[in-house]
From TrEMBL:
Its main location: cytoplasm. GO terms for biological process: protein catabolic process. Gene3D superfamilies: Leucyl/phenylalanyl-tRNA-protein transferase, C-terminal domain, Leucyl/phenylalanyl-tRNA-protein transferase, N-terminal domain. InterPro entries: Acyl_CoA_acyltransferase (IPR016181), Leu/Phe-tRNA_Trfase (IPR004616), Leu/Phe-tRNA_Trfase_C (IPR042203), Leu/Phe-tRNA_Trfase_N (IPR042221). The gene is aat. This is Leucyl/phenylalanyl-tRNA--protein transferase. It comes from the Bacteria. Keywords: Acyltransferase, Cytoplasm, Transferase. Functions in the N-end rule pathway of protein degradation where it conjugates Leu, Phe and, less efficiently, Met from aminoacyl-tRNAs to the N-termini of proteins containing an N-terminal arginine or lysine. It is found in: Cytoplasm. Its EC number is 2.3.2.6.
Length: 233
């Protein structure tokens, strides 16, 4: 299905994109059409309350963290760590979301409602996960939305050293395997993400890019059950 054909009853184009704030509006809901419609306008949901609870905020960072083609940095230590790991696509979506939602994590924000909403998007073929396993056990991963040539990352986790980095590396291999407009959105650039090659785009430039990205051909490598080889390990 084309996710952009989902009918959103909220008009995120009317959000306050002129605000000198990452938060651009409040309210709405977590229906699949709402989330897809928001992402098509460069907006994503995250609750303002404790643990990501209500009120529901919608965010469009002034400086958006992005990973561009050719920018992912593979250190020697990451390459060594990856040799004991196997990577797959969409084999344990709910388990990856649960790992990301672990309440003991600093800044935990994924509520049961958020997990349910992205689970619905996964069943529609819009949300995807990358799993990292070591000796058959899930030790890390990430999940997010794919709209055309855009992969909008929501969250990642690890219980083994470098496992979430391996997940992002694998995602970059998938997304940038094809020519054409492609971008990975990571919401905010942190020092950790910057060390992996993440840079920023100002809000207007990001929103302009998204308009082209979501109209681009979909990312072909996001095939359920696919194994992801990481080159030159």
């Amino acid at each position: 299905m084309n996710p952009l054909e989902l009918e959103c009853r909220w008009n995120f184009a009317d959000a306050d994109f002129d605000a000198d704030d990452d938060l651009v509006t409040l309210g709405a809901d977590l229906e699949p059409a709402t989330i897809v419609g928001a992402y098509a306008q460069g907006v994503f949901p995250m609750g303002l309350g404790e643990g990501g609870g209500e009120p529901l905020g919608w965010w469009s960072p002034l400086e958006r963290g992005v990973l561009r083609r050719g920018d992912f940095h593979v250190s020697r230590s990451l390459r060594r760590s990856s040799r004991t790991m196997e990577v797959s696509v969409d084999t344990a979506f709910d388990d990856v979301v649960a790992g990301c939602a672990e309440p003991s994590r600093d800044g935990a924000w994924i509520t049961p409602a958020v997990a349910s909403a992205y689970g619905a998007l996964h069943r529609l073929g819009v949300a995807h996960s990358i799993e990292v396993r070591q000796d058959g056990e899930l030790v890390g991963g990430l999940y997010g939305l794919a709209l055309g040539g855009l992969f909008a990352g929501e969250s990642k986790f690890h219980v083994a050293t470098d496992a979430s980095k391996v997940a992002l590396w694998a995602l970059s291999e998938i997304v940038f395997a094809e020519p054409g407009p492609r971008l990975i959105d990571v919401q905010w650039r942190t020092d950790h993400l910057a060390s992996l090659g993440v840079t920023t785009m100002e809000r207007p430039a990001y929103r302009d890019a998204v308009a082209h990205l979501v109209a681009s051909p979909p990312i072909a490598g996001l095939v359920p059950g696919a194994r992801v080889p990481l080159g030159n390990r």
